[in-house]
Amino acid sequence: MARASSKRSKIINSLIAWTLGLIIFFPILWIIILSFKTEGDAIRSPIAVVISNWTFDNYFVVQDRSDYFKHFYNSVFIALGSTFLGILIAVPASWSMAFVPSKRTRGILLWMLSTKMLPAVGVLYPIYILFIALGILDSRIGLVVVLMLMNLPIIVWMLYTYFREIPEEILEASRMDGAGLREEILFVLAPMALPGIASTVLLNIILAWNEAFWTLNLTAAKAAPLTAFIASYSSPEGLFYAKLSAASVMAIAPILIMGWFSQKQLVRGLTFGAVK
Amino acid sequence: MSTQQSRSAAKVMLAPAVVLLMAWMLVPLSMTLYFSFKKYLPLRGGDLGWVGFDNYTRFVSSSSFWPAIGTTLLIVGGVLFITVTLGILFSLLLNQPFWGQGIVRIMFIAPFFVMPTVSGLVWKNMFMDPVNGFFAHLSRAFGSEPIQWLSQESILSLTIILSWQWLPFATLILLTAIQSLDSEQIEAAEMDGARLLGRFWFIIIPHLARAITIVILIQTIFLLAIFAEIFVTTAGAFGTKTLTYLIFQRVLESQNVGLGSAGGVYAIILANIIAIFLMRIVGKNLSD
Predict the structure, then answer these.
(1) Which of A36, A205, B72, B213 has the fewest CB atoms within 10 Å, measured from its CB?
(2) Are the beta carbons of B279 and A264 separated by less than 8 Å?
(3) What is the mean pLDDT of residues B203-231?
């Protein structure tokens, strides 16, 4: 009898969960559908949209008319560049705080976190004129640097929590075997830290890809990544639902896929290790 | 000996991160402070000299200040209420056994990975457009007048868009916290005859208290800074000017840098007040 009731509750749970899940996911599902319709069909009523003919045209039109892949490339460059640079600077910093902690480690970690909480708009003008002075307004390099600095605290924190989980005994054992600092890092730590570094990289790419304050304010035609390119659809000409849908699907697909792989790490990264 | 060596190595390895973040924080911050005490209009005469606290008093006494504060509070409060309440319910649901857990979970968290400009524009056009939007078609199918979402119910519309984006964050974090709840604890309570509601109030909610606090604090910091969603939907019209958006307009649109910088200093102070609470929780976790 207990089995029968648990089976029934499983059916009810499934129904509720699938219904709610589909409602939440619906906007994304809807733009996937619209992206395969003609502009004329895309503005019709929902049922008419679904039963109308399917087409791949929008994906080509978006590329032809607005050089979509230039912006896609900018997004890739900025996301990967800022992540790579951030990891390069954060790995040594996190390593030293995790394995050679001092009295100030806690204070430094919290201070780093506090820089992440500065509202960007508060320093918009200084960054803007610094960019002009340095000649890096509307350049990919400028955005790589800003997004790296913006996300550096999260990278340091995530790596720190991962490094802390590596048992110290293993390091001591390798030291006893005569391993120097370099061997210790390269052959003992790195392999064990790799999964942690990988998920940090993943989360940081997601954050950089979707960043939409600096990318909107510091770029124009040349260095605009997808966030800024999509924003240009806020004052469109003529019918544009299908094109906007196709551009949006291509812009979010890579990150959606990466996100699915990093659910767990996401929690740790976004709560600075406070919830695991 | 080896500790001496590793200690100095540690300092060298930490230095680049600390120096960079220090510069990233101090340089622009001191520039903002500097501008905030000046009458500075780049397009209309440039630097017009020191004005003391003039910008600070003018920023708060301008006619758009209190409406902006009101809008900010409504949006942040509304999104927090919706995401935390639904987040608790959804995380409890997702923690139950059901078919296709993996796929459903993906559907629940997907909105979080959608870039802000995409979600703003998709909601604005494909759903909330009063002529061609999904909701308009739906209203007409039921024979009622479509709602002018972003012009007449602008704050509600933005609250819906932002809640959709942030619900996955709350759900995911609360689900992670629930999964760490001892199932023995629940079973014991069940044996003691605790009813469903009792279990919810006296075991699950207290267990989630810390995670809920963290969700609220982190979301508040991010929500206070929302920009792109407003930029692509209403551009600050129809009473959707938040504090962040007001400062953005002062600085870049009307190029009144002194005034905008004073606003920026207010925003920084506000964010710091919330950050202190968050840091306390995170810091406590650090020493455990």
Answers:
(1) B213
(2) no
(3) 88
Residue A229: other Cβ atoms inside 10 A? 24
Task: Collect contacts of B98-106 with beta carbons under 8 A, ≥24 apart.
Answer: B98/A10, B98/A13, B98/A14, B98/A17, B98/A18, B99/A10, B99/A14, B100/A14, B100/A17, B100/A18, B101/A17, B103/A21, B104/A17, B104/A18, B104/A21, B105/A21, B105/A263, B106/A260
Minimum CA–CA partner of B173 in chain A: A267
Q: What is the rounded average pLDDT of the residues B236-251?
A: 91
pLDDT tens digits for range B112-121: 999 999 999 9
What is d(CA B278, CA B218) in angstroms, rounded to the nearest whole number?
7
Indicate yes or no: CB of A31 within 8 angstroms of CB of B264: no
- One-letter amino acid at A204 equals N
Closest C-alpha among A199, A217, A205 to residue A255: A205
Q: In sequence order, which residues have a C-beta less than 8 Å from that of residue A102 and are 6 or more positions away?
A: B7, B10
Grade residue B214 by pLDDT with cuts at 50, 70 and 90: confident
Residue A18 CB neighbours (<10 A) = 16
Alpha carbons B140 and B128: distance in angstroms, whole number: 13
**Identity (one letter) of the amino acid at A40?**
G
Q: Please state the ipTM of this predicted complex.
A: 0.88
CA dist., res. B64 & res. B182, Å (int): 51
The neighbour count for residue A52, using CB atoms within 10 Å, is 16
Place of tokens 């910093």: A93
Residue with tokens 């924003």: A231
Q: Which amino acid makes up residue A119? A: P
Residues of A whose CB is below 8 A from B212: none
Q: Which two tokens stand for residue A180?
A: 């120097």
Question: What are the structural domains, with CATH classification, of chain B?
Answer: 30-287 (1.10.3720.10)
pTM listed for this prediction: 0.90
CA B186 to chain centre: 33
Is residue A1 scored above 50 in pLDDT? no
Give the tokens for residue A51: 């039963």
Of A115, A259, A264, the CB nearest to B25: A115
Reduce the DSSP state of residue B167 to 3 states and report it: helix
Comparing alpha-carbon positions, the chain B residue that sits nearest to A25 is B107
Show me where the domains of chain A are located: 2-57, 66-270
The whole-angstrom separation of Cα A113 and Cα A156 is 9
**Count of CB atoms situated within 10 Å of the CB of B239:** 14
Residues of B in Cβ contact (< 8 Å) with A93? 13-14, 16-18
Question: Residue A67: phi, psi to the nearest 5?
Answer: 50, 55
Residues in chain A: 276
Pick the CATH number of A66-270 from 3.40.190.10, 1.10.3720.10, 1.10.150.130, 3.40.50.170: 1.10.3720.10
| B199 vs A58: CA distance, rounded Å | 52
